[in-house]
Amino acid sequence: MFRIAGSVTAARLTAACCRTVTTKQFQVHGASLHVLSSDTSRKTRHGPAHRTPPSWQSVRSMASAGESQSKINYIFFGLAALFGGGGIVYYMRETSKDTPKKAAAAVSSASKEAAETVAEKPVPETTKSGKKLLDAVPQSYPDFEVMPEIPGHAKYLLIGGGTASFAAFRAIRASDAKAQVLVVTEEEELPYMRPPLSKELWYSDEPELVEKMKFKQWNGKERSVFYNPPSFYVEPKELAYQENGGVAVVKGRKVMKLNPQKQVAVLDNGWEIFYDKVLIATGGRPRNIPVFERASQEVKDRVTLFRGIKDFKRLDEVSKNASSIVVVGGGFLGSELTCALGKRSRDSSLKVIQMFPEQGNMGKVLPEYLSQWTTAKVREEGATVKSETFVKRARFSDGKVILKLNTGEEISTDHVVVAVGLEPNTELAKESGLEVDDVHGGFRVNAELEARSDIWVAGDASSFYDIKLGRRRVEHHDHAVVSGRLAGENMTGAKKPYWHQSMFWSDLGPDVGYEAIGIVDSSLPTVAVFAKATEKDTPRAVVEETGESLRSVTETEASATDEPAPDVESAAKLVAEVEAENRVAPTPKEDYGKGVIFYLRDDIIVGVVLWNLFNRMPIARKIVKEGKQHQDLAEVAKLFDLHADED
């Protein structure tokens, strides 16, 4: 069927029709057969060029251009006679004797003229259902009723529904106010934040809030884990009709392949989505360990690889009925979950056991003395901690999972939580011709986070080059925010390089927490300065002060500017001389109330941990960015004003 707007002569109409059907393939849409013009298939009557998606299976082009020309011309003899009389019929008959190439040349001028006439007289259209057809709506969609549930084209396509995608579509909409953004996610949830899943949600005394995935921040303020309410989003089918743009989320679908040349994404159900710009923000999947991968199905059914909302809901339910839970892993997530479950065990008969191969909690990050001190704090939360311990075998017996440890001990438990890091989701790489970093994992991207033309990568799955610290891959919330935002800006033409030093934080309950930036690796030399903590030096206090539990959000925009790093030598002269003993690592007997730990490589600060020290991250970021050698790091520590709140 054809839609004609404006007034054209019979000759122009006939020429345009011939041009249309002789140089483009047919596409079937619903019960109608629609013909896409070669000259106008990439643009609407009212707007700029765009790609018309093959939302239904294409009926392939005829065997040859010559056959197409001959057969199609006869179809339009009747139309020609109707609109133009016998003269046009004669003209068509004569041109049909020529080759397709000559026929196309004969009508190209008339076709162009007809298109110009149409463009000069745009006519607003609405569908039968009253919905206005906008510029972004392909002409091959005749009515809203036959619009597919998943659009066949997206100017901005975001793969993954996590924090990086959320930050990206906010940046896109900020730069392109009428942008239509399509998010495709494997999860059955709208974009949400992950940090509360191992922190605040476990400390709520109101089960009805948790059921709604709401929590109270450490300051008591209620908040949802979802970034936006459902009303913020539009249905995917409605996206193309939004005059002021919008964001739609396709849930429960996985992108299996990208074709960078054709700019097509293929979903797991075979659906194809053409895109102009695409962001890969697929994040990562929880690592498992071989002993559980080889275990029986009965064991596997009682193991949780903790990552998303579904995992939280499952573990939350298990913890209410189980008599024992084992947490495998001593890093950020494992330690946070152990503290959370330990707190719950105080009011029940639940026994919580944590085990890891390191000497102490977060042993890969914190200096040994601080790691051991942290382990003592975790034990105070009600958990049994087994350091330098790992599982050798797992079997199922009498309704329990029996774990054989390297120490020879056997532990019987109802459930096991594995929290040993992430594997970046890079399945798209092989089928899509994208490069994977063999050392760090993730998609290799350039300074603008671009993997290939019109393909960007952000978040956990991105292996990026840091001009100060080299190529890296970061698995933290702030990096997802910053890299997602930058990718979104670059998708709208910003062309900005990635240089921001992202931070991360961890809370072992409301009273102990830390923030870190740069390379924080316990194998590096460290220098630490500590001071007595006050009531203001806790995660609870900083949330009460700022009203924000996501502490990366509390940083001001000034922290991400190109301002030079502070002149720490000049600042140090303003304070008293600190004795050389401060450079010596503290002993485990000390109470590490609050402090700053510097991580060194070639005598240059490459990482900083702020222990129960909050709202100083901009200072740490500038120091790492500066990349200087310092004569006395105790003097540098004075920039953080450790004694500000002491009596």
3D structure, described in words:
The chain has 647 residues and is an alpha/beta fold. It is 28% helix and 22% strand. It contains 18 helices and 31 strands. Strands 4, 5, 8, 9, 10, 11, 23 and 24 form an 8-stranded mixed sheet that branches. The chain has a 5-stranded parallel sheet with strand order 13-20-14-15-16. Strand 23 and strand 24 form a beta hairpin. Helix 1 (10-23) packs antiparallel against helix 3 and helix 2 (65-75) packs antiparallel against helix 4. The longest helix is centred in the first third of the chain and has 21 residues, at 100-120. The N and C termini lie far apart (83 Å). Mean pLDDT is 77; it is low at 1-72, 74-140 and 553-589.
Give the SSE layout.
Blueprint: H1 10-23, E1 26-29, E2 32-35, E3 58-59, H2 65-75, H3 77-84, H4 86-97, H5 100-120, E4 153-159, H6 163-175, E5 180-185, H7 207-211, E6 214-216, E7 222-224, E8 246-251, E9 255-259, E10 264-267, E11 272-280, E12 284-286, H8 290-293, H9 297-300, E13 303-305, H10 309-321, E14 324-328, H11 332-345, E15 351-355, H12 368-380, E16 384-386, E17 391-397, E18 400-405, E19 410-413, E20 415-418, E21 422-424, H13 427-432, E22 443-444, E23 450-452, E24 455-457, E25 462-466, E26 470-472, H14 477-491, E27 503-507, E28 513-518, E29 526-531, H15 539-546, H16 568-572, E30 594-601, E31 604-611, H17 617-626, H18 633-637
Parallel strand pairs: 4-5, 4-11, 5-8, 11-24, 13-20, 14-15, 14-20, 15-16, 22-25
Antiparallel strand pairs: 1-2, 1-3, 6-7, 9-10, 10-11, 12-21, 17-18, 18-19, 23-24, 25-26, 27-28, 28-31, 29-30, 30-31
